[in-house]
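re: ur question from yesterday

yeah so i grabbed the chain u mentioned. its 203 aa long if i counted rite. heres the sequnce exactly as i have it in my notes:
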Amino acid sequence: MRVPLLLVLVSLVGVAVGLSVPGWADLALLAGLCALAGAILFGAALLRLEPRAAADAKWVIVDGSNVMYWKGDAPQIETVRQVLERLADLGFSPGVAFDANAGYLLAGRYLDHAAFSKMLGMAEDRVMVVDKGTPADATILATARDLGARVVSNDRFRDWLDQHPEAGRPGALIRGGFVDGALWLALDDAALRPVKAQAGSGP
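ran it thru and got these structure tokens back, copy pasting raw so excuse formatting
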């Protein structure tokens, strides 16, 4: 991918020289064609990288209806946003799923995935609101299994372990919470937990 980019840059220099030096118009034309070819090659290289990047993504599914209760007794969308931002900062590619009643709990009305997407500042294809009467747990676990993803939730999903035994494996679930207003996530790196949580006074 570096070669096409280098070709574009060198060609643009050639165009600039050809246009600024009298009698070098042919150089400008040739360099312009090279710049166009380099741009096409660079674009093709990017397109080839996209599927690989998607396959290599470190996916994690956030149980939004659980996480929104991590900070205090009342549900808060800001809590979900903070968790999503921290996960992204740690190199994860997060998605989030909500129960159908999450909007009523947060805003007193039904909210679809587009509304939650706007509230969270996320792409719509990363947000899911399950249909009424459908438990989000099943959708979360099925999606996580399909993507090979971990799940962020303090729910143990015990009722679903027969169908999704992978949820009971060590590391499949990422617990978390807030200690003195600071977010902690039970990831492999203990440094991601605040001191109080490490000492045993956290969730």
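noticed a couple things. The first strand starts at residue 59 and ends at 63. also The radius of gyration is 24 Å.
anyway ttyl
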